[in-house]
């Protein structure tokens, strides 16, 4: 009876820690998503930016108010979903599991987005193919899991469809659409973003797992 009480107490403590850590991870992922949405919007809107021009703040917040929260929510969902899928498949993701790798992944993602706005190509097909190759290269360099690739493609397609519907209904528009109502390179950006947030989510989940293991051993 005493042993059972101790076991239940330990398990209850672990469940509480898991719930708390899940909320913390969700909040962190949401914050990262909002931050990246603001930064990437700045890269898309600004041209020839020097060091902090006077209108930089207004440029950061020039997108519709709902875009950063939507990106934050999507980031939280993706970042929590990736380690959950890994656990369900019984395939813990161990490829390049350190923060330096995650930071490089974020930097490459920002670079891909920057290229979509800044680099001049002969035509949109060439731009789209280049960004597609860069996005797959990002997955190969920082992920390499089949579940990561599958989730990336699936979520990118859903996000592209949602964007098409938003533009169709007049919520916003692209200056030079070449793929129905949007730019043809947009799915590549979505895919790279999903892989990036999945990487961040996995890294946060790894720290939670280590913390719970240490707490269980201590108890």
Automatic annotation (TrEMBL):
Write out the transmembrane intervals.
22-43, 63-82, 125-142, 149-168, 180-200
Chief localisation class: endoplasmic reticulum
Keyword list (alphabetical) reads: Cholesterol metabolism, Endoplasmic reticulum, Lipid metabolism, Lipid-binding, Membrane, Steroid metabolism, Sterol metabolism, Transmembrane, Transmembrane helix
Q: Which InterPro entries match?
A: INSIG_fam
Signal sequence segment:
none
Q: Domain of life, per the record?
A: Eukaryota
Single annotated GO MF: lipid binding
The topology of this chain with respect to the membrane is: Multi-pass membrane protein
Role: Mediates feedback control of cholesterol synthesis.
Name it.
Insulin-induced gene protein
Species of provenance: Sander lucioperca (Pike-perch)
The beginning of the lineage is: Eukaryota, Metazoa, Chordata, Craniata, Vertebrata
Protein encoded by which gene: insig2
């Amino acid at each position: 009876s005493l042993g059972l009480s101790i076991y239940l107490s330990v398990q209850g403590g672990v469940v509480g820690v898991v719930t708390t850590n899940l909320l913390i991870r969700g909040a962190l992922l949401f914050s990262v998503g909002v931050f990246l949405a603001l930064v990437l919007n700045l890269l898309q809107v600004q041209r020839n930016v020097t060091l902090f021009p006077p209108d930089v703040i207004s440029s950061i917040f020039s997108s519709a108010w709902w875009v950063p929260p939507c990106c934050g929510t999507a980031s939280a969902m993706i970042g929590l979903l990736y380690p959950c899928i890994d656990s369900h498949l019984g395939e813990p993701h161990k490829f390049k599991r350190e923060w330096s790798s995650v930071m490089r992944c974020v930097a490459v993602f920002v670079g891909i987005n920057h290229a979509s706005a800044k680099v001049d190509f002969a035509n949109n097909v060439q731009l789209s193919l280049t960004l597609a190759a860069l996005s797959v290269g990002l997955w190969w360099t920082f992920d390499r899991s089949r579940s990561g690739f599958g989730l990336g493609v699936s979520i990118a397609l859903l996000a592209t469809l949602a964007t098409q519907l938003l533009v169709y209904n007049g919520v916003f528009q692209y200056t030079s659409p070449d793929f129905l109502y949007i730019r043809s390179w947009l799915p590549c950006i979505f895919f790279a973003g999903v892989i990036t947030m999945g990487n961040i989510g996995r890294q946060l989940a790894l720290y939670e797992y280590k913390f719970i293991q240490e707490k269980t051993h201590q108890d």
